[in-house]
Each structure stands twice: as C-alpha cells, then as structure tokens.
Amino acid sequence: MNEKNMKRISKFLSLLLRHQPEKIGLQLDSNGWASVEELLQKSKKYGVRFSIDELEAVVANNDKKRFTFNIDKTKIRANQGHSLQTIDLELRPVQPPEFLYHGTVAKFLGAIHDKGLQKMSRQHVHLSTDIETAMKVGSRRGKPIILTVKSGEMQLKGYEFYLSENNVWLTDSVPSEFIKFKQ
Length: 183
Ligand code: HQG
What we know:
The chain is an alpha+beta fold. It has 6 helices and 9 strands, in the order H-E-H-H-E-E-E-H-E-H-E-H-E-E-E. It has helices at residues 3-19, 36-46, 52-61, 109-115, 131-139, 151-156, and strands at residues 34-35, 67-69, 75-78, 100-105, 125-127, 144-149, 161-163, 169-171, 179-180. The strands form 3 sheets. A 3-stranded antiparallel beta sheet has the order 1-3-2. A 3-stranded antiparallel beta sheet has the order 4-6-9. The protein has a 3-stranded antiparallel beta sheet with strand order 5-8-7, with no helix packed on it. A hairpin with a 5-residue loop joins strand 2 (67-69) and strand 3 (75-78). Helix 1 crosses helix 3 (52-61).
C-alpha cells in the first residue's frame, strides 16, 4: 500500500475513532473500542474501502502509533486525541519527568498566559518529553513556539499526568504559573 492510501485510511480512522463514529453509524464502547468487522463493513458501505490487511498495515506503520488492536484483533481503538468526552481510556496516573513540552503558535499566547493550557476540544492537554515533537505539533498551525511545562512541580502539587499507549503525555490543564514562556 502506498503512503497516500495509508494516510487516507489513518485520517478516516482518526475521524471515526476519536471524533465522529456516528458518521458511519459505528458503535464505540465506553473504553473507545470498535468492532473491526463492523468498522470494515460500515466503512465500505460509506464508500471508504479497505481490507483487514490494509488496516493492520496502518496500525503497525502509523507514524504516531495512533491506533491499537485488542489481543485477538477483533477490536480497535485510538490511543489518544479524542474529542468524544464520554470515552474512558482507563489511563492511570504516572510520574512525569521534571519538564514536558507543548508546541503552540503566537496567536494563542495571550490566552495561554491568562488561562493556562486548556484541553480545548480534546479530552486532555497534550505534552511531549522532547522539544522536537512539540515543534512538529506547533508547526501544524504556523511558526512553532515551545512552552516548557513544570510537570514535576505540578505533580508534587497534586496534578495528575497520564501516558498514552503511544507515549503522548496527557493532563487536564496546566495553570500559567507552571509554564515557562521563555526557554
Ligand atoms: C491551544 C496531534 C487558547 C494549544 C498532535 C493548541 C498532538 C489554547 C490548540 C495532538 C489554550 C489545541 C494535540 C488557551 C491551549 N487558549 N489556545 N487557554 N490552551 N491552546 O489540536 O496540542 O496528529 O487540540 O496550544 O500531534 O495542538 O491528531 O492540541 O494549539 O499530539 O495524532 O489550542 O494532535 O496529533 O489544539 O495537538 P489541539 P495540540 P494527531
């Protein structure tokens, strides 16, 4: 399968498994899992055809490991990034490193200064351990600006951090006092 086709399927899966399963009438359970069989059938009916082999290739080769199968590959879910507020990914709090990074753009800085980092339409604020990833995330919107989050200090003060299956750090919000706006 070529790159373009993989990307097309990955985008479609993100839409269904994170945001709008109702688009094709797909059911997600409370932990975000969809039946693989139902996904293939309903996608086909909707006009987006892909085989189980293609789905497996997308899950295995996805650049950010966005999706996971259950053990017998009868179910699939997105590892993070949901805007569906009712999905419980069963994340357990873990100890974060001293600092984590968030990539954003200049036009949001005023609001972030005032209100801190907020989850906006997703379930969590997304953070990374390395600056390079934060640069990529920020550059989706323009010239990236990197914010350093004092995650170690936050945790000591009782804030919880989670690590998704694909190594994205997640938290509910980051108040401004824990953000270093200058590197
Ligand atoms: C900004 C992609 C105003 C925040 C990426 C960001 C990531 C505020 C935007 C994942 C704000 C939200 C998530 C505030 C935060 N006022 N703006 N108080 N607080 N913002 O897309 O972190 O390819 O929901 O800086 O790689 O950009 O989809 O979050 O610019 O991992 O797998 O509001 O999405 O992954 O945008 O990206 P998003 P994000 P995938």
